[in-house]
Amino acid sequence: MPAITVDDVLVLPRLPQLDPAATSFRPVRRLTTAPSGYEGEGFPVRRAFAGVPLNELDPFIHLDQMGEVDYAPGEPKGTPWHPHRGFETVTYMIDGIMDHQDSLGSGGTIANGDTQWMTAGQGILHIEAPPEHLVTSGGLFHGLQLWVNLPRAAKMITPKYQDIRGREAGLLTTPDGGSLIRVIAGEIAGHAGPGSTFTPINLAHVTLQPGARLDLPWQPDYNALIYVLAGRGTVGAEARPIHIGQLASHGKGDALRVTADATQDSNIPALELFIMGGRPIREPVAHYGPFVMNTQAELKQAFEDFQKGRLGVIPAERMPHTD
């Protein structure tokens, strides 16, 4: 799992040492296992938020772990052209390469450790697919796509992009140097990530070495979700066992605790976590397919606008492997 790394984590800023007597470590409210499925043209995904009530996810809507899969030549797949309205998609590429293109003429490529942040707002058409050379050669593909809700006042803003390179992430470690914390968005213990958000949120990819513990300060008014990308460990104030493909949603408190098992599988060198949380929007959610609105009437309008071409048109000049 390459993402972004450093040769020596001991040169990085460190989290503060938390005083257990003065810290309220959050308990695990719910522990779920992501079911497997397929998305787009047939790439495998784990549905990380399946079975979790929206009020525990708010301000998030949906999370897919894409892969991890080692494609043979000719096998890499993406998504066809599709619309979005009313939220933001955050695509974090851990391993592999993904091209994206939209109906506004924007596009680009993200690779190991990069993030492509698309604010759909009032509406957009876009496509995500592996580049032609990767389709030809095959190779590793592993990433995440997170959907972040927009508040009512921002549902119909002008679409925009942020391409965040892996090297831009805020990097820090624990007091004992047992982890690498990559802050993609928000702020953790005063260390900010590069992502700009409409709703206050934190996103971080954490690598925790075998036997290491992470005590992570967390805003009390944010929700808190920990998804395991690889490895095994324990999570929460009560040290609940957790493993790859599981999500822990947390109760109230001002810090998170995760410990990596001292022994991991031979092909998994560390516990890999995607940690997310934010200030709940607390507005009604009407979600169907590629649209996230506040009411059923707004959903109906979104589908009508899409069918009448108001969300954009597919550009004449398209990525060569997406026809």
Using the coordinates above, name the CATH class. Mainly Beta
* Overall body shape: globular
Helix content: under 10%
CATH topology: Jelly Rolls
**How confident overall, as mean pLDDT?**
92
User: What strand line-up does the widest sheet have?
Assistant: 1-22-19-24-17-14-13
CATH superfamily: Jelly Rolls
The largest sheet, given as strand count, sense and whether it forms a barrel, is: 7 strands, antiparallel
Quote the distance from N terminus to C terminus.
31 Å
* Secondary-structure class: mainly beta
pLDDT below 50 for ≥5 consecutive residues: which ranges? none
Order of helices and strands: EEEHEEEEEEEHEEEEEEEEEEEEEEEEH
Structure summarized in a few sentences:
This protein has 323 residues and is mainly β. The chain contains three helices and 26 strands. It has one domain (14-280): Sandwich (Jelly Rolls), CATH 2.60.120.
Describe the SSE topology.
Blueprint: E1 28-33, E2 36-39, E3 43-47, H1 54-57, E4 60-71, E5 82-84, E6 87-95, E7 98-102, E8 107-110, E9 115-119, E10 124-129, H2 132-137, E11 139-149, E12 160-164, E13 170-172, E14 179-185, E15 187-188, E16 191-192, E17 201-208, E18 213-217, E19 225-230, E20 232-235, E21 240-243, E22 246-250, E23 255-260, E24 271-278, E25 286-288, E26 291-293, H3 296-307
Antiparallel strand pairs: 1-22, 2-3, 3-4, 4-11, 5-10, 6-9, 6-11, 7-8, 7-10, 9-12, 13-14, 14-17, 15-16, 17-24, 18-23, 19-22, 19-24, 20-21, 20-23, 25-26
